[in-house]
Design goal:
It is built from one helix and no strands. It is mainly alpha-helical.
Length: 21
């Protein structure tokens, strides 16, 4: 389930960071 943690961190960065796309 370590991959889930990585995806979660990426999702948090997308939510709290400026729109990348």
């Amino acid at each position: 389930m370590h991959n889930f943690y990585i995806v979660f961190m990426l999702w948090v960065r997308v939510m709290f960071a400026e729109p990348i796309f």
